[in-house]
Amino acid sequence: MTTAFRAARRAARAEGAGDSGLSRLIELHAFNAAGDAAVAISLAGTIFFADPGGARGPVLLFLGLTMLPFAVVAPLLGPFLDRFSHGRRWAIGFTMAFRAFMCWMMADAVASNSVALYPTALGCLIASKAYGVARAATVPRLLPSDQTLVKANSRISLAGVIGGALSAPLAALAATAGGQWSLRYAFVVFAGATILAILLPAQADATAGEQPVGRRERFHLPNTIVFALRCNVGLRLLSGFLTMFMAFVLTQNPFENWNHDTTWLLGLVIGAAGLGNTIGIGLTSVLRKINPAVVVVVGLIADAIAAVCAALFYGLVACVALGLTIGIAQAMGKLALDATIQRDVPETHRTSAFARSETVLQLSWVIGGFLGVALPSGHPVVGLMLLAALIIGWTVFVLIGRRRDLPAPAGA
Questions:
Q1: Which parts pass through the membrane (predicted)?
Q2: Is the Cβ–Cβ distance between 304 and 388 less than 8 Å?
């Protein structure tokens, strides 16, 4: 265990991350993902797919609830964090401490079967999203001189995958004694993360050369970010659709010879998307030079092709391939979008830009999920064909919009 810990520390500090302070943020994000995994395991089955028979009402309620945190993060927390960007360590630390408190309250609510579970869970989710935008806005301040933003983001995300994977079994073990115990475990994790946040290097709070944000000043996203965001909208829409549509299809109309193994079948398809997400993060971390604009376009086109193939050759292999492709494209596309925002948005507006982009992406995922729930699960090929047509149309729209936004040649 000690050897593994030392190896992880060396990996986090590699390529100048130790000197710049990025390694501290990498370690912090691993704790964040570990806590999030514990919370997810604790609350599994309370709302989302609690009825294995496929009741759509609770799922639609879940989709609506996932948008509520962004109603707070985008218009309120983003601008607030921009105004107080000099206290980024304390802002991140507060999101961790708040989640620790919410986890303790949720544990009491679970133990007493209280309705307080729902507002505390919502508060925990809001703090999680606030951490995400604050952390993303901090990365450029801790970036090593010889490392790209895309690679730095991928290293942080990879640490999150590892942290979540290591924490999940521990949380599941604690949950065997009751859901409240895995939440108390999450409390301990977030309490530790609070200390790590406060111990981030002072450079995370540096504001040298930054201009204060005027009260009435408005910032319009550059075309590079609008383009990357539009591409990611398509990627997220596909992800939301796949999660919801295939969940209902595979539980109610499984493939031949899989009638009694629908849980494993669903795990293969949805798990392929999770595996693809990890592969995408790993690829981005390994590749030395990455053009964010190319990454988002290739990801969108790859998803369109995979959707067409899944509709034409509907079956287990095609659906697993679709899930894998969607996972890879979504991970790489999101990392490329984050790098574009970090590169092209001034520090004084960066947190607000991240909050706005996260809101748009979550809305896209929810719309995709609504489509997946609304379409009849008895005709999966028809649903996949409609999805393929939608994503092809969106790809054409994005590429045409990109050409229109390009500057005219000199002398034109």
A1: 30-50, 56-78, 155-177, 183-204, 225-250, 262-287, 294-314, 381-400
A2: yes
